[in-house]
Design the sequence.
């Protein structure tokens, strides 16, 4: 989960770079971040299932299990935040794709 979340962070930074090149590239990169976030969700669910099994077998004590669940939740929330940031980038990309470059330049010149 952690390595997938780190990969999401790298993709988010790359998404910001791509936004300056082309809105289309940024939208495509945001889609990759969505897929990565879903993978983190699946990994978290699998981890929790395995942890519960270990807990019921007595191989892990309750406090350790709760701590590990909290860590898994934190990692999953972080990946959710990356997905939210990618959504914002997608909104910006759609806006820039919908407004011709000339209008952006004219607005910048007026500012």
Sequence:
């Amino acid at each position: 989960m952690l390595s997938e979340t780190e990969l999401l962070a790298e993709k988010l930074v790359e998404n910001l770079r791509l936004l300056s090149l082309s809105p289309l590239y940024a939208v495509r990169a945001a889609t990759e971040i969505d897929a990565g976030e879903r993978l983190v969700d699946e990994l978290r669910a699998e981890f929790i299932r395995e942890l519960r099994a270990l807990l019921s077998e007595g191989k892990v004590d309750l406090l350790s299990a709760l701590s590990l669940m909290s860590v898994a939740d934190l990692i999953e929330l972080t990946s959710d935040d990356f997905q939210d940031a990618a959504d914002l980038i997608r909104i910006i990309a759609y806006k820039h794709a919908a407004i011709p470059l000339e209008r952006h330049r004219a607005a910048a010149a007026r500012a």
